[in-house]
UniProtKB/TrEMBL annotation:
<dbReference type="Pfam" id="PF00557">
    <property type="entry name" value="Peptidase_M24"/>
</dbReference>
<feature type="domain" description="Peptidase M24">
    <location>
        <begin position="316"/>
        <end position="529"/>
    </location>
</feature>
<comment type="similarity">
    <text>Belongs to the peptidase M24B family.</text>
</comment>
<keyword id="KW-0464">Manganese</keyword>
<dbReference type="InterPro" id="IPR000587">
    <property type="entry name" value="Creatinase_N"/>
</dbReference>
<dbReference type="InterPro" id="IPR033740">
    <property type="entry name" value="Pept_M24B"/>
</dbReference>
<dbReference type="GO" id="GO:0046872">
    <property type="term" value="F:metal ion binding"/>
</dbReference>
<dbReference type="GO" id="GO:0070006">
    <property type="term" value="F:metalloaminopeptidase activity"/>
</dbReference>
<dbReference type="GO" id="GO:0005737">
    <property type="term" value="C:cytoplasm"/>
</dbReference>
<dbReference type="Pfam" id="PF16188">
    <property type="entry name" value="Peptidase_M24_C"/>
</dbReference>
<dbReference type="Pfam" id="PF01321">
    <property type="entry name" value="Creatinase_N"/>
</dbReference>
<dbReference type="InterPro" id="IPR029149">
    <property type="entry name" value="Creatin/AminoP/Spt16_N"/>
</dbReference>
<dbReference type="Pfam" id="PF16189">
    <property type="entry name" value="Creatinase_N_2"/>
</dbReference>
<dbReference type="InterPro" id="IPR050422">
    <property type="entry name" value="X-Pro_aminopeptidase_P"/>
</dbReference>
<feature type="domain" description="Creatinase N-terminal">
    <location>
        <begin position="17"/>
        <end position="140"/>
    </location>
</feature>
<feature type="domain" description="Peptidase M24 C-terminal">
    <location>
        <begin position="540"/>
        <end position="600"/>
    </location>
</feature>
<protein>
    <recommendedName>
        <fullName>X-Pro aminopeptidase</fullName>
    </recommendedName>
</protein>
Length: 600
């Protein structure tokens, strides 16, 4: 199994570990210390050696930050995790603070006094984060101090070794563009802006630029590394030279120089010219090193990577057909077996992974499967473990959010189904239908160029708002090409300021969650494409083409709530699912799929 189900959070150790940290803080004359979830690469996934927040607090989610003071400690989490964390955190030692309601700055302002010293590891906080925090604390004369030695690293005696896995070339037949052409393209942009170099601090951008993939972290196939791209299109890659095989060196070519990470700091101190740093993803550490050489700006790799080329789009389509067939096999099995009450959340995860493995193309999951039945489905980022595992029961809603990593594409799909045998909870059908209406509104949207995710977010929420409902997560995130399942800069949310552009892949996943009863989410991936022209239309329009192929449970739909256009969209979508996937399925699953996708 790729996915494990042990709960190794160890919240019972939080009190003793906090005591050790406070002793280290006291010895250094510090009044507080910030512990983010991120490592120095600031990605969603971190290797075991970088799980400082989990080691200290027991929290293992993908986003969070702890603030440790002499007599208080708080864990700041967003709405995805506040409910779940209560089950796994020592709440006597740590208070859980909803970060959307209480900012770290305001919490600190109420608890620190002028002259107090708050420390942070500059390798683990972005330039933008430190600027924001410093501006707030300076007003109260609270000292924000960068420290060279992270005290957690000093007290974490059994800390795992850094990853040292394989790094492989990502063939042009999947990438769609040679690395040297990408480098020349970005270098030309640097030259046009009178910049001498670009510091690339996001490992997925290094992977995209060099057309390489790795296995340093779970679920995202990149190697943890930094790189410098110069205006002459040469690259200095900071990676252990022992990890570069002859085959990989040949793939990289003469324009890529390998330098060990231990030599990175002196290299950067001696570099000439102006170096572009992206403030939202670059650790403050690099700005401290480069100082007057720093130019703050966007990493152009991010936007180039987000706009998939035709080869990558074709690969995404193939990956979703393959993945859709596996998912339909799973949903057919679930429909037959779950009403017995003998199928657990872990059983479902296990069988779904088996279905994807049987494609013969699965490289990894794109994230740990969310498999939530009944009340567990209301926990937005629920991860089943041996302790939380429960059996699916007739009449319950079951939410499964999953995806796969394939050489030609990355998938992410959510379906919510009714387990047959009893009536669903009150409100479930109305809520599901409103979620579906929002999903269809976004999927069928037409919008002018330069429209951003904020503008589109409301389309998916409007049907829920009309019923007095909403959901506390974004509507859509970007998705990579055999890279990160959560990719920027594009997103469809209340903070999605990047205009959507052709080739961008985004998710469409409105939802509704009734605490203690059920959760609903319907998610497809779709990519931005020029919309069909309309007679007398005055502006070029963009739209979406759906990638995901899987039935939407009609048992949870109230057809009278759908407009004729919404009904037509669903019927056309289901027709395409059947026609596309039938050649890959066995007879009994074809029969089930045809019935599941019959027109409303």
């Amino acid at each position: 199994m790729l996915q494990k189900f042990e709960n190794n959070a160890q919240p019972d150790l939080a009190a003793s570990r906090l005591a050790l940290l406070r002793a280290a803080m006291d010895a250094a004359g510090l009044d507080g210390f910030i512990v983010p979830r991120e490592d120095e690469f600031m990605g969603e996934y971190v290797p075991a050696c970088g799980e400082r927040l989990k080691w200290l607090t027991g929290f293992g989610g993908s986003a969070g930050v702890a603030v440790i003071l002499k007599d208080k400690a708080a864990l700041f989490l967003d709405g995805r995790y506040t409910l779940e964390a209560e089950n796994y955190i020592d709440t006597e030692s740590l208070s859980i603070v909803p970060i959307m309601q209480v900012s770290i700055q305001s919490w600190l302002s109420d608890r620190l006094k002028p002259g107090d010293k708050l420390a942070y590891d500059p390798r683990l906080h972005s330039i933008a984060q430190i600027e924001k925090l410093s501006t707030s604390l300076d007003k109260q004369d609270i000292k924000l101090i960068a420290i060279e030695d992270n005290p957690i690293d000093l007290i974490w005696t059994d800390r795992p070794a850094p990853p040292n896995g394989d790094i492989n070339a990502h063939a042009n037949s999947y990438a769609g563009q040679a690395s040297i052409d990408k480098r020349k393209d970005i270098a030309a942009q640097l030259t046009s802006e009178n910049h001498d170099a670009l510091l690339i601090t996001q490992p997925e951008n290094v992977a995209w630029l060099l057309n390489i993939r790795g296995d340093d972290v779970p679920r995202t196939p990149f190697a943890l590394s930094f790189a410098i791209l110069k205006a002459d299109a040469s690259v200095t890659w900071f990676i252990n030279p022992d990890r570069i095989s002859e085959t990989l060196q040949t793939h990289l070519g003469d324009g890529v120089t390998i330098i060990a990470p231990s030599d990175m700091t002196p290299y950067l101190k001696n570099i000439d010219g102006k170096v572009v740093l992206e403030p939202s993803h670059t650790p403050q550490y690099f700005m401290d090193i480069l100082q007057e050489k720093t130019v703050l700006g966007e990493d152009p790799c991010s936007l180039k990577k987000a706009c998939k080329n035709p080869v990558e789009i074709e690969g995404a389509k193939k990956a979703h057909i393959r993945d859709g067939a596996a998912l339909c096999k799973f949903l057919h099995w679930l429909d037959i077996t779950a009403p017995s009450g003998h199928i657990s959340e872990i059983d479902a995860v296990t069988f779904l992974e088996q279905c994807r493995r049987e494609t013969g193309a699965l490289k990894d999951l794109s994230f740990d499967t969310i498999s939530g039945s009944g009340p567990n489905g209301a926990i937005v980022h629920y991860r089943v473990n041996n302790e939380s595992n429960r059996h699916l029961q007739p009449g319950e809603l079951y939410l499964v959010d999953s995806g796969g990593q394939y050489l030609d594409g990355t998938t992410d799909v959510t379906r919510t189904v009714l387990i047959d045998g009893a009536s669903p909870p009150a409100m479930a059908i109305e809520a599901f239908t409103r979620v579906l209406k929002g999903h269809i509104a976004l999927a069928s949207a037409r919008f002018p160029e330069k429209t951003d995710g904020v503008a589109l977010d409301a389309l998916a929420r409007a049907p829920l708002w009309a019923g007095g409902l909403d959901f506390d997560h974004g509507t859509g995130h970007g998705v990579g090409s055999y890279l990160s399942v959560h990719e920027g800069p594009q997103r469809i949310s209340k903070g999605g300021t990047q205009p959507l552009m052709p080739g961008m892949i985004v998710s469409n996943e409105p939802g509704y969650y009734q605490n203690g009863e059920f959760g609903i989410r319907i998610e497809n991936l779709q990519f931005v494409t020029p919309a069909t022209e309309i007679n007398a239309g005055q502006r070029p329009m963009l739209g979406f083409e759906v990638l995901t192929l899987a039935p939407i449970d009609k048992k949870l739909i109230n057809p009278t709530m759908l407009t004729p256009d919404e009904r037509d969209w669903l019927n056309a979508y289901h027709k395409n699912v059947v026609e596309t996937l039938t050649p890959l399925l066995e007879t009994d699953t074809i029969t089930w799929l045809t019935q599941s996708c019959a027109p409303l």
